[in-house]
Every structure is written in C-alpha cells, then in structure tokens.
Design a protein that fits this description.
9-stranded mixed β-sheet; homodimer; 36% helix; two-stranded antiparallel sheet; 307 residues; Rossmann fold
C-alpha cells in the first residue's frame, strides 16, 4: 500500500505549455486568443487547400471522439443516400492508421493516381469519389506516424487532390480529439457542419461529449448527434432488445444543446453489407436503418438549403 | 470528371522521412536498424520508468488498432478476473482523449494525488489500482495534445507513479497504431505480452491485423486475439444471432500466426455493468461472457507460469 502522507491533488500534467509561435501546429490552437494566431491561420486557409476545395459546396465532418461507434458506417451511408438522390459526393477518409472506407464502399484495391490537376480520387458506386490511405497502403502495412507526418499528409490530401465540382465532401475523422481532428478543423476552410456519432451506453457519452465540445471550441456548427447501434430486432421472434441500452444520444444532445438527428438500429445485414462493400442504404433501402439514414440526410440537406 | 491523362501511381506520401537523430521520438522507430537507436533507447529503458515499474511482475498491453471493439471492457474484466483470484492488479488507461476505465471500474470521481513516492493510483473494487487521465480531467475538458505532449504525459505516467509491488499491470491502449501505442512499446521495459481485441466483421480485421503487425514489429509477444461482440443470445426466445457475423477473430489469428484466445458474446448486461462501474465478471460471474473472460485469464496465467 503506497504512503498516503504529504498528498496534494494533481490538476494538470507537468508538460511544457509555453508558446513557440508555431500556431498552425499548436495543440492549444482553439484555446488561444492571440491576434498572431489569426494571421498564421489565414496564411493556411487562403493557401492551396482553399483553391483545390473551392468547387465543393458543402464540407461535412463526421466524428465521435470514441472509436468503433460507426463513424465510417454513418459516413458511407449518408454519402450513398445523397448520391442516390443525384448529388455529387466525395468522401475523405481521414483515418490514416485504420482506414475502413475503401472496404465499406467497395473500392478496395483501386489505387489513387496523380493526374494533371493533382491526386485523382477513386470512384465507387453512384459516382462517389473516395480519398483514403487505404487506397495507398498495403493491408499488411502499419502506419506509426506522429503529429508532423500526419499534418503533412493531411495537407497533401487537402491541397493536392483534384476534388473538382462537388455538392458534398464528407470527412470521416478517426477516434480521438487531438492530432487529426484538430488538423482538419484548423486547415479545412468553411466546414458546413459536423455530425457526431455515438452509441447508447452512458460511458460512450463522456467521450462523444468531448468531441461535441471540440466542435464548439473550434466554432464548427454541429448538425446534431446520431445514436448508432440503437436497439436490435430479433429476426426470429421480432422482440426489440436494447443490447446497449437506449437514449444516451438523446441525453447527450440535450446536455450539449445540439439537435438529435436520429437512431440507427443494429442489424446483422448492416455489417454484412459493409463487408461486401455495399452501403446498406443501397443494399437494403427499406430497412429501418436505411430509413433512419435517409431522414438524417433530409435534415442535413434542409439545414443547408439543398431541399 | 477529372483529367485522366499523365497518370502515375502513388506509392508513398511526399513527407520528409529523413533522420534527425531523435530516435526515442521517431515514428520510424521499429523500422530502423541503426545501432545508434539502441543506445538512445536503452538510455530511456534504464531510466526512471524502469525503477518505478520494477515491482510489477507482468505488464500486459491491450490493443486493437480499431476503436470501440471493447479494449477497455476486456481490460477491466481481465483485471477484475485476476484480482478476484487474489492477484494484485493495476490498470493504466493510456487513452488520453477518451478515457473510459474510471467509469467502467467504478472509480470515477476519485482523484489521483501525489504522495512521497510519486502519483498514487486510485483504488477500486478488489484492490485494483487505476491510473487514468479520466481521474484528472473534468468531464467537459477536451484534450487536443499532439505527439510531444502525449509523450511527456506517457513518461509522467510511467516514471512518476508509485506502482508498488503488483502481479499485473494492464495497459489499455487507445485506437490507432501511432503516437500512444508506439510510446508505450518504446518506453515500457519488458512488456510480457499483448492481447489484441477485435470484433467479428471482416472490415475490422484489416485494422486489427495492423495492430498485431505493430506488436510483431516491436518484438512484443502476442498472447492472442480476443473476438468481442461475438454472437447474441435473444433473451426472449433464446435464438443465437451473429449480429456482426462470426469467425473474423479466428481467421485473423490464423492469418497472423498468433493464438486465438476466445470469444466474448454480446449481452445487454455487459454495457449496463460498465455504466454502473462494475465489471460483468464480478457482477454476473456465471454469464457466458464472464466464463469466456475467465478462460482467457487462465490462458494468460498459464503462459506466464502463474497457474
């Protein structure tokens, strides 16, 4: 049993928090109110990314804070739902370490190539264009990039891709609230809004709340919260079970003051359709999950004046 | 449609890969075979962390690559299963952005304090000691640390904690294969082995494979693969449904040449018991999930000569 005398509480870590003037690379970006920050920031925003992304009408970030709640599932299905109704849609898979989008959207094996105007995204069903490290890396490869490499790769994806004219670009963010999320929020000009994905358990809301707060700190509009894996209909007897409880997403929306966008139920067909690269909104358009996604897509389009 | 002429394939990113001699901070650590690396590495290994952690018999890393597959669930239940049989167990929650361990292990609200010999872990049921940023941060706080801050915080947790004499230290790693995973694998002396957690869908195995490969690159023994959320027994009619398919974990184990440790089924009680801070292995010891965890604990203890 450790000695308990001379105790004092720990309020912060003893790591160096001093400013080195490298604003665009700083993890305190959203906490800082120095005027110099704006100068450095604008230098980036009016840079190449602003030009390459000029033809995109609406940029939407999908995040969760927590991993494995279905960010990529929600991203790929929202993108597909919008493409089915005739929108031109691109998806940027910002998960460098564990990219799932190429597999889920049926473009695994297609490779990114460089054309005259930059990196050409790979194209999947319904003309959806996909940009992902999963289209560059071999399955066996392991990325162990720290912050600078991630930032450089982010800038490459933002400023050297030939996005062309698109109605939507979805950016699928990895778990966490640090390096990759902050890079996207710092360097992408004019994010139209964010979709925060969560699952029912209370323990997940602590993390999803951090993601929502990060958007609020960064001044990014949050379209709302999606509760994924919400309830399960037994295919044998039809009884509905809240395998992971229910209502956590709604509670989080109330707590953080953002809209609740809807619930997507668990369904064995969902993960099957991801595994064969066909988003369920296209494979099973009449399933409750697909109807939920279409409703969420409607809400977002209404928000953006697209409907 | 972008111009397709003058295409060439992209094999790597155009980011600087040159060596700056800062081996202990390098993301290419496991790819490098320069003798100088060993010199720098040993300087760390024989440093303070080696002293503070000297009283720990077995250090076990729990990782997945992917988020939300149940790393924290597996960690908290393995720790509890071992503590119930009389082992002294500590848990280090390495997830800075989204720490779940304090909530899951019922120590949320207890704060870390500094004693004579360093940071004193908080103590939960069965004498399990917990170290987590969740015991420092407020719920509303958002961490946006990049690599250096994370490394410094890791070193603080490793070298300034009063671990004392313990049979086991479990390290619960966040999603990804970069900053935090590499920091732990670089700075922790003598990791006894790793448990890789996955879920049934094939799309998850691509990411879990990267985590397994990272262990292999780092020369860390992999105890094996655990398949979580494997099958669901409908409480109404008893029919067993593979909500997320089945067998992905076993396939991954075969592909990567590591043992398969077992399957943990989905059960509404599991997430409920996490939400009230009582690992299910203690709350529902006779459930199939608890029996699966106990079997996994047996395998690990057999591996380590503790049984």
């Amino acid at each position: 049993m450790p000695e308990k005398s001379n105790e004092r509480s720990i309020e912060h870590f003893h790591v160096d928090m001093s400013c080195d003037g490298q604003c665009e690379a700083c993890e305190k970006f959203f906490d800082c109110d120095s005027p110099q920050k704006t100068v450095n920031y604008e230098r980036r925003r009016i840079g190449r990314a602003k030009k390459t992304m000029a033809g995109i009408k609406h940029i939407i970030a999908v995040l969760a804070g927590k991993g494995g709640v279905g960010k990529s599932l929600v991203t790929s299905n929202l993108a597909t739902a919008l493409a089915i109704r005739g929108r031109t849609v691109s998806v940027l898979d910002q998960d460098f370490d564990g990219p799932c989008i190429p597999k889920m959207m049926g473009v695994l094996g297609k490779k990114l190539v460089i054309g005259k105007k930059g990196i050409i995204p790979v194209e999947g069903d319904f003309g959806i264009q996909v940009i992902s490290t999963g289209s560059i890396l071999k399955d066996e490869a392991v990325l162990t990039w720290f912050h600078k490499m991630r930032r450089n790769a982010t800038e490459e994806f933002l400023s050297h891709v030939d996005y062309g004219e698109r109605d939507y670009l979805f950016i699928d963010l990895p778990p966490g609230t640090s390096s990759d999320s902050v890079n996207i929020m710092t360097f992408v000009p004019n994010i139209a809004g964010a979709v925060v994905v969560t699952i029912p358990p209370i323990v997940s809301q602590i993390v999803a709340r951090r993601a929502t707060r990060l958007c609020q700190k960064a001044g990014i509009n949050v379209f709302g919260i999606v509760e994924n894996m919400s309830g399960y209909v037994c295919p044998e007897c039809g009884s509905v079970e809240d395998i992971m409880q229910s209502g956590g997403g709604q509670q989080l929306a109330e707590d953080t003051g953002v809209p609740f966008l809807g619930k997507i139920p668990l369904d064995p067909k969902l993960s099957e359709s991801s595994d064969v690269g066909k988003p369920f909104v296209a494979a099973f358009p009449d399933s409750p999950a697909s109807r939920a996604v279409v409703t969420i897509a409607d809400t977002i389009e209404n928000n953006l004046g697209m409907l």
